[in-house]
Amino acid sequence: MGVAKIATLWLLGVFVVIxxxxxxxxETVKSxxxxxxxxxxxxxxxxxxxxxxxxxxxxxxxxxxxxxxxxLPQMVRPKGIMKLEMFKSIVDQSVKYKMPIHNFHVFGxxxxxxxxxxxxxxxxxxxxxxxxxxxxxxxxxDERIDILVKNVRNVLIAMDSMDEKVYSVLxxxxxxxxxxxxxxxxxxxxxxxDLKIQIQWLRTELNPNETIDPFVERFGEHxxxxxxxxxxxxxxxxxxxxxxxxxxxxxxxxxxPNENFSIGWDGLATFCCFDYDMKQGIGHVKDDNIHDIxxxxxxxxxxxxxxxxIFDNLPTCKDCNGPFS
Length: 325
Prior knowledge:
Layout: H1 3-32, H2 35-49, E1 54-57, H3 84-96, H4 116-126, E2 132-135, H5 142-151, E3 154-160, H6 164-170, H7 176-190, E4 196-203, H8 213-219, E5 225-231, H9 256-259, E6 260-263, E7 268-270, E8 283-284, H10 290-294, H11 297-308, H12 315-318
Parallel strand pairs: 1-6, 2-3, 3-4, 4-5
Antiparallel strand pairs: 6-7, 7-8
């Protein structure tokens, strides 16, 4: 065994030991300190030291599809279009407060946005963050492809499955062949540009063993295209449960309130994209800037109540089957 390999294994062992003792120390501290001190430490962390790891701006709540796993069909909040002035203001604030915008989606399909070119051009010139445009891809045409190639850095296409029957059930349409043709056109037109394309497949009870291979075989390997998979989620209410593992965990451990920041098309903000009707609003961009909303008293109070298992003001969290830890 070479010296380099021995050194690598030794460093890996040291890392594992450090991680082990770090976890032990953290649990020991939790068991020793009084609960009111732990609450205070959590409040300080929430007030000063957390930033959203997933900041979504919903430029439209409208969508051309009604997908099987989506909460949009049962959504009761109004659907609409974000005013361009509001969008630009949010972009400017994200730069000012160093809060990167990760995607232009909470619900709805951004390709429907009537001022898509102007909005994406503004973000590319002035924005902060990856700014992923997430779409089901059905509405991709030559005009929209041209807008994406010229003005967007990252686009995600939710293909979900290369099995036509599975796709038709998940996405509730017969546009499989149209979508694959649209993706082909986008990949071809994007060559030589700075557009990065992500093609997503979704692991559900309908396709638990599907892999990346058929996606790569169908669309080919390109420097600006990546394929990735994720496991489906289940929204509360009447949304169907297509998860492979149907588990429910203690929601008090949920990371979403400290990591997810979603602003709806009308400016109402929540700290969880599972809150599709935004019943747990933490502020409005018409009243406050995004920094004061994220770190504000309403957000702090709801985070505290979730940690304590108080659900009077958290109806979505109470019934949630989401990603908790």
